[in-house]
Each structure stands twice: as structure tokens, then as C-alpha cells.
Amino acid sequence: MSDRWRLADHTDLTEEELDRAAALVKVLDSQTRLEILLLLNEGEKVVHQLVTELDKSQPLISQHLRVLRSAGLVTSSRKGREVLYALSQPDVIGIIHDLASLETIKQAEDELAARRERRQRTATTSREDGSAGAAIIDPPAPVRPELDPGLLPTTPKPIRD
């Protein structure tokens, strides 16, 4: 396999660059991380501010900050007893906005919602025989063992001495 990929806009990317892009996409796959980045775009914040604004637990916010920091998107600095977090790659905000505005994602969400609505309508619509498509709990009368001895188990009962 070639170490370079040719994209539609004629931009060359090495496999290493594609790996970095894939790693960044993995980091951005959490709504909470995206919210943290958007909040940090407004200015430096300490953990308790993020916890309050996002209404999430402190350990959860700290874990997300560790991931963002290890990806190089966030920096931290100590100010007295608190740690200030800041956005280190402001360009990521543009990427977040671009991703949010992609029409294909909205189309996929709309299609999924339409499918769910059709499925729910189908499940709740009554059938011609008056049932709502529920499973049969009792077999119909003509196939009950009392009426058809062929349906009885054929295992003989134990013989007692």
C-alpha cells in the first residue's frame, strides 16, 4: 500500500498524517469533550467551573480533560491551589463548527428519525383481525393437546415397584 493517499481536492496526506487525523477524530467523539473545548474557547477555566457549567461529575470532567490534554488540544497551568485549563489549539473550534454543520449528518439523523417513526406507527397500528401484532400466548384451540393426542409427550411414566 502506498504511503500517500490522494484526496478529491488533490491534497496529499501521508499515512502518519492520516493516523494523526484519526486519533483526533477519536478524541472529538465525545459530546462532553466538545462542550469542554467550546467552553475553553471563551477563556481559561478551572475544573469546578466546567463541572458547574456542564452539570457533570468532577471525576468525569477530569478524565475528559486528561484525554484532551494528552491529545494536545488543552494545556494546564497551576494558579495557587487550582489548575487552569486553556485551549491550546483554537483551530479545533472551527473544525467542531464545520462538523456540526455537515448536511450529511443532519440527513442521516432525519432518516433515522423517520425510520423510527414508521416503525412505531407500524407497531401501534391494529391489524385487520383486531390484534396489534402481539405474539400468540396460547395456541389456538384446534392444536391443543387435549384435542389432538399427537401433541402429547410420548415419554412413558416411571414404573414403581
UniProtKB/TrEMBL annotation:
Coiled coil stretches, renumbered: none
Gene3D superfamilies: Winged helix-like DNA-binding domain superfamily/Winged helix DNA-binding domain (1.10.10.10)
Domain of life, source organism: Bacteria
GO molecular function: DNA binding; DNA-binding transcription factor activity
InterPro entries registered for this protein in UniProt: ArsR-like_HTH, HTH_ArsR_DNA-bd_dom, Metal_resp_trans_reg, WH-like_DNA-bd_sf, WH_DNA-bd_sf
Keywords carried by this UniProt record: DNA-binding, Transcription, Transcription regulation
Keyword Cell division assigned: no
NCBIfam families named in the record: HTH_metalloreg (NF033788)
Protein name per its UniProtKB record: Helix-turn-helix transcriptional regulator
Species assigned in the record: Corynebacterium wankanglinii
